[in-house]
Amino acid sequence: MSTDQWQIDLERQTAVHESGFTVHVDGNLRLPFSVSPTNVPSDFNVIKQAALLREGLQVMVELSEDSQPRQGHSYDYDDMPQKPEKKCRIVNKPAFVPPANRPERPVLSLKSRKKATNEA
Q1: Over the stretch 31-86, which tens digit does the pLDDT of each residue have?
Q2: pTM value?
Q3: Cα(103)–Cα(98) distance, rounded to whole angstroms?
Q4: Which of 2, 19, 67, 87 has the fewest CB neighbours in a 10 Å radius?
Q5: Could you give the C-alpha distances from 116 to 50, 106, 113, 119, 120, in angstroms and in order?
Q6: What is the layout of strands, in order, in the sheet containing 6-9?
Q7: Hey, which residues does 16 pair with through a beta bridge?
């Protein structure tokens, strides 16, 4: 990765590669809200675009003295209040309980019926 191929504007949070590929970051450089690549040359394939995007972000983070977010926002997620853990209760019960008022119905079976041996 060479920083001499990039023109970095930390005020606007923009990095421009010598090929014209431009990366714009919204939010904190280490934890951005969005990253927008623009002016992608037509002869660049997807792998080259991803490599330049990653390289541009790394160069901006390295050159920024403080990577704090702009406009006084604080994004320190360690200081955020945590929700209390919910305790789960395990209840052993059958998967299906037939209702008590269920009417009796004849059972449909594919087995052949045996004839009664005690015929009168």
Answers
A1: 888 888 888 888 889 999 899 999 988 888 888 865 444 555 555 556 666 777 77
A2: 0.51
A3: 11
A4: 87
A5: 80, 19, 9, 6, 10
A6: 6-9, 14-17, 22-27, 32-38
A7: 7, 22
